């Protein structure tokens, strides 16, 4: 069932979304050669709890960590470990934060030092595909309008589209109706209404659309071993269009002490 959020619920989701934005901003300076994904996870959990938030992913269906940390050909759901980031890697950090029972969700792909032109291309156009989808959001539009916009942009830039995974509604639960695929036909799917909140999240690959799941039961990789990128925002449908509840925040206002690795 697709739910319409009340003004009070929307305000709580704004708070949850802003916590997600602040945590992404907090982590960004730490994403450098030599740090482990487990250390990033520890930093994130401490920061989230310091704000009064709850790391929703931790324990969800047995997932063991606060963050999903997916490197290079890992599309989503990478489990933090003692693996160290290397120069030339790209890493997607996906997190969900709960606040007073309501959720915010955003993913972003980051580069570790200098990366290849192909990875730069992948990151740039996956992010742009996200915003092509968001542009379609307004009351009366359909979910398929978002899906078609993402697909058109991805295909025009020769990027693979992960079809087995999709965006979703969000509220008191991390995953609610409706599903928001990254491919499809305009004019199809549920009608968007003011007060709905959805997550739009292109997962695009440098090569094939095809993916597989690792033996850990979580990590999803590209079938051909080429890199993937993943960008996601939590988006409120307003009476006039949309509001991004997980805005990107510029570095500067949060004081961070960064250890050497």
Short description:
The protein is an alpha+beta fold. The protein has helices spanning 7-27, 37-50, 117-134, 143-156; strands at 54-55, 68-71, 74-76, 90-99, 102-111, 160-161, 167-169, 176-180, 197-200, 203-205, 211-213, 220-222, 228-230, 233-237, 242-244.
Description:
This protein is of the alpha+beta class and 261 residues long. It has four helices and 15 strands. The strands form four sheets. A five-stranded antiparallel sheet has the order 8-7-9-14-15. Strands 1, 2, 4 and 5 form a four-stranded antiparallel sheet that branches. A hairpin with a 2-residue loop joins strand 4 and strand 5 (102-111). Helix 1 (7-27) packs across helix 2 and helix 3 runs antiparallel to helix 4. The chain is globular, with a radius of gyration of 17 Å. 48% of the residues are buried. Residues 253-261 have low confidence and may be disordered.
Contiguous runs where pLDDT drops below 50 for at least 5 residues: 253-261
Helical content class: 25-40%
Distance between the termini: 47 Å
Record field, number of beta strands: 15
**SS-based class:** alpha+beta
- Secondary structure tally, helices: 4
Shape: globular
Sheet having the most strands: 5 strands, antiparallel
Order of helices and strands: HHEEEEEHHEEEEEEEEEE
Gyration radius, in Å: 17 Å
Strand content: 15-25%
Enumerate the strands of the largest sheet in spatial order, edge to edge or round the barrel: 8-7-9-14-15
Average pLDDT for all residues? 95
